[in-house]
Every structure is written in structure tokens, then in C-alpha cells.
Amino acid sequence: MDFDMESMALAIGVSVPVLRFLLCFVATIPVSFLVRFMPGAFTRHVYSAFTGASLSYLSFGFSSNLHFLVPMLLGYAAMLLHRRRCGVITFFLGFGYLIGCHVYYMSGDAWKEGGIDATGALMVLTLKVISCAMNYNDGLLKEDGLREAQKKNRLLKLPSLIEYCGYCLCCGSHFAGPVYEIKDYLEWTERKGIWAKSEKGPPPSPYGATIRALIQAAFCMGLYVYLVPHFPLTTFTDPVYQEWGFWKRLGYQYMCGFTARWKYYFIWSISEAAVIISGLGFSGWTESSPPKPKWDRAMNVDILGVELAKSAVTLPLVWNIQVSTWLRYYVYERLIQNGKKPGFFQLLATQTVSAVWHGLYPGYIIFFVQSALMIAGSRVLYRWQQATSNALFKKMLVFINFAYTLLVLNYSCVGFMVLSLHETLASYGSVYYIGTILPIVLVLLGYIIKPAKPARSKARKEQ
Predict the structure, then answer these.
(1) I need a labelling partner for 229 at 20 to 30 A (CA). Which of 132, 166, 264, 269 fits?
(2) What is the DSSP annotation of 293-332?
(3) Membrane-crossing residues (predicted)?
(4) At CB < 8 A and 24+ separation, what contacts does 184-193 make?
């Protein structure tokens, strides 16, 4: 068996641990399919917890489940013993343990060298545990003081231990997300809400949406495997890179970022297929006639939305969508004081939490600070664009915002890929820190050139 695994791993150019993870990861699809045949909510909870723990054991070893058990028990104990503060307690304890694992395992270095460990799955689990505790905490508060997301997701009673374990370890999202709310999970297992039997007929078939996600996954993996040998990250420290001209170096940064993203597109497409085929991916019906089923609960990326983004402001809406939603609900919105508008502080704090969640590598921290600057600069361009009545000038600003987003995103994500401070600064310095200077200049210009505010529109509210 070991020989076969080694041969297979060698054939596709990955390490044996990564191949083992990929096999277990793909296995979430048939495992998620079988949950459809489990009778009763209790059986589905047991099945979700057992299969999630089993796949983790096969992929990462026995210690992985011990790591998962720590934040799960801390979060449940906080809800059980101190409901009034359980959200804050779980937030800091959960992130504290995750940071400790990041430091101990130094997962970023392992991933760069072709290794794998349970830290990625622990990252997803941490967000689930925190959101569950915060929603239970919100159940004590009056509805008139809550935001819409809090009202929708609040928990009035404590989930049972088996419900909680099933939610945390549900194999369709256990390895790589997406993150979803425990209230949705409970309604799905109990066949309530949008999953309840209705007069419209039987539940919608998930097979068409699942096949679409699998075709997307195959295309993404094929493109990634083709591109990655042509754009290795080691080139950034190669003397030949420094001999290139400015535009060639900038172009290489773009291609490295473009190549790396297809790996994530593949992973999220597989996760999406697993959650869809379980039925949990169903998110309601369209308003068209006749109504059609929507399967976007598990959608974690809009590929064209990322690659052709007209503004950096839209990137959190199309990239790692469910984590971005989590950050908005549980960090960004909760830092806004009543009666006040959000500002750069809330944006920077949210991006900092996102950076810490990924790990303590300097490249992560720099990337997410860069992201906050990138979004702030894009907002300035958008305000100018909305304020002008000149059609030609408006189109120019739209193009400038698109080009700005493309440049700064791929410049910034080099830090996310290389991780070390030396390599990050060296790659940024090789293009004269253009992706850092541009956003700062735009933000400063935004204080000087203040266009008259146009009439509020739906598009502006989204910005």
C-alpha cells in the first residue's frame, strides 16, 4: 500500500501526505451523499461527527482529532457555564489555541515544502466554534438592538452535545470550509425551514449543481498543474529575476498570483460539490417563474468575479466568500458603535484578524494590511467615479479602478505566497513598492479631493 501511495504521489508530483489528504478530501463527496439516506436528525448528527472524525484520522492521524477537541470543548464549556460572555471568551480562547498551533507546526513552511497537517481544518473549526458561541450569546439580547444577521442566526437554546459535534465535524465542510451557521445546519438535519417538505413537490435535485462544481474543480486543477511549473516562487530569490526590467517583474508577480489562485479554486469547488450533494448547499428558490433552486450556500468563490474585479471593494464578496461573510458578521459589524459609521479602523481590525487566523507569518500580516490599504484606495476611486457626470471620465475611472485592483492584488498576494519577511520585502522592493505607494497616495488624495456626494443608490450602499 505504501509503495502504491508513493507511486501515485510521484506520478502527480505531490508528497504522500498531500496525496492522502487529497484522497480523503475527495471522499467527502460520496460520504456527504450518503448522509441523505440517514433516518432522523440524531442519526445525521452522529454520522456527521463520526465521518468527519474518521476522515481527519485517515488524513492527518489521531492527534488531529485531539486538536479539534480542544476548541470544541472550550467553546461548549463557555456556553454552558458563562452564557453572558461566552462569545468573547470563545473568540479569544479559540484564536489563542489556533495561534499556538500555528506557531508550533509552522504550517506555512510545511505547505510550501509539500507537507500537510490539520491546522487548515482547525482554522475552519475555530470559526464554527466562535460563531456558535456568539449566536448563543446573542440569544440573551433584545432583538431591537441586534443587526439583521444577529437576529437571523441567534440561538435561544443551547445545542445538545451531539448536535454541536455534528456541526463542528460535518465532513462536507470540515477540511476546507465553507463556514456556515449552526442554525442552518440544525434546520437541515431536522428537515425544517427551506428543507421542510412543501406542497411544491419533492426537494430539488442536487446532481446538476454537483456536476457543475466537479467540472469546475477538474478545470481548475488542470490549469494549476499546467501553470505551476512555469511560475515557481523560487524565482523571486533567483539572481536572474533582478536582471529583468520593471514590467517583466511586475508581470511575473501577476502570473504567480494568478497561478496560485487556481489551487484554491479547485479546493473550494470540491468542498462546494460535497456540501451541495448532501443537500445542505440548498439556499432557497429564485423569484423567477417557474422558481429554480439556488445552491450558493456552499459557494466560496466567484472565479470571474475575482479575475475581472472592477473594484477591490468587491473582492471580499467573491473570494473566500463564506469566511469573508464570517468576518463581516463577527468582527467588522461588531466593532461598529451604534449610531456611528464604520471607518478604516474596522477595516484594518478585520483584516488583522484574518491575517492572524491564517498564521503569524510576516507575509500574511503584510498581505492583509495591504488588503486594507487596497480596499481603502479603491473606495476613493469609486467615490470619484460616482460623483462625476462626465460619461467619458466615468469610464476612465472604472478602467483605472480595474487596473489598480489587478495590480495591487497580485503585488500584495506575493507576501501571502512566500510568507517570509525577507522574500516579501524583496519582491515588493523589486517593483519599487508600487502596490503600497499607490493605495496610500489615493487615500491621501481622497482627503484633498472630496467630490460632492451623489444621491445614494443601491450600488453605493453595497460599497
Answers:
(1) 269
(2) EE--TT--B-HHHHHT-S-GGGHHHHBSHHHHHHHIIIII
(3) 12-35, 55-74, 86-106, 264-285, 364-384, 396-419, 431-449
(4) 184/280, 184/297, 185/280, 186/41, 186/159, 188/279, 188/280, 189/41, 189/44, 189/45, 189/48, 189/163, 190/41, 191/41
Helix (H, G, I), strand (E, B) or coil at 285: strand
3-state secondary structure at position 201: strand
List the grid coordinates of 440.
Answer: 496610500
Helix (H, G, I), strand (E, B) or coil at 140: coil
What pLDDT digit, counting tens, does each position of 353-397 carry? 998 999 888 999 999 999 999 999 999 999 999 888 888 999 999
DSSP state of 198: B
The pLDDT tens digits for 236-289 are: 888 899 899 999 999 999 999 999 999 999 999 999 999 999 999 999 888 887
Annotated domain spans of the chain: 2-195
108, amino acid identity: G
The C-alpha cell that represents 457 in the structure block: 443608490
Rounded to the nearest 5 percent, the helix, strand and coil shares of the chain are 75, 0, 25
Model confidence, pTM: 0.90
The size of the chain, in residues, is 463
Instruction: Provide the 10 A C-beta neighbour count for residue 311.
Output: 18
User: What are 261's three cell numbers?
Assistant: 489562485
Ramachandran angles phi, psi of 301, nearest 5°: -155, 145
- Examine the residue annotation and report whether 358 is marked as an active-site residue of this protein: yes
Q: Which residues pair with 391 in a beta bridge?
A: none
